[in-house]
């Protein structure tokens, strides 16, 4: 699945995004519904995309604005497409999400957030179409696939061409386009609540994820095994870095180079169900490569040898 801005939608289609916020009270699954007094309805937290905004950014922003809780975006859920009164189509993309932080303070558009069991939510929902997302959450929970953690694989952003650089290649910096791409990654990685960052020590990789590290206030760790130079001599070291992330099982991002990516993506592919869409997406990314500045985000259940990639989303630069 590729997640970009809504510019590719058919003219006249209204783009919106949201999430089913969930938590556990003891052993009981609960989901959050929001009430809009203007319409006197109960639904999922959602809203329209701002100009230039991506679906994932909008989903995280709208959940925060409407519930007062900062979400960690998880597995994708079924989207809703329906006709509006003005004759336009509206497409809403949804994800499951957990609460990372927040006060729960509400804005004027929402006057109540209700945490309900799935059965209670089923009877409270105002729109039949919202039952699709609820059922997907229930099914994922029963299958042990609702609780996940994100791993983002990032290819460094555009850099000064080799032919135009006189210094050592590891010191080659990002160009103007690359710096813009690095800034655009900040809200994407924030939506997934990335807490750990490892990168090739090359300047172009470090600078790609440094803006997010600064915004999130987290340490950026350099790993020589993710560099082109070390990979050429010791290719196993890149996969060892990935295995350590899989063992930790924490929201993380790994930034590296085009020649290193196939080894990393093939290792992730091997954790996906054979013949699945996820397996195919990772295989294609490994073979065809990733765009500079792209973040490929896997939702993973379990850790270590039990880690399994359940979904993949590709965030490409605009």
Number of domains: 2
Along the chain, the helix and strand elements come as EEEEHEEEHHEHEHEHHEHHEE
Main beta sheet, described? 7 strands, mixed
CATH topology of the largest domain: Rossmann fold
Tally of contiguous helical segments: 9
- The CATH superfamily label of the largest domain reads Phosphoglycerate mutase-like
Helix content: 25-40%
Please state the oligomeric state of the protein chains shown: single chain
- What is the global morphology? globular
- The percent range for strand residues is 25-35%
> Could you say what the CATH architecture of the largest domain is?
3-Layer(aba) Sandwich
> Quick check: average pLDDT?
94
CATH class of the largest domain: Alpha Beta
Radius of gyration: 20 Å
Written overview of the protein:
With 318 residues, the chain is an alpha/beta fold. Helix content is 32%, strand content 30%. The longest helix has 16 residues, at 176-191. The protein is globular and about 65 Å long. 41% of the residues are buried.
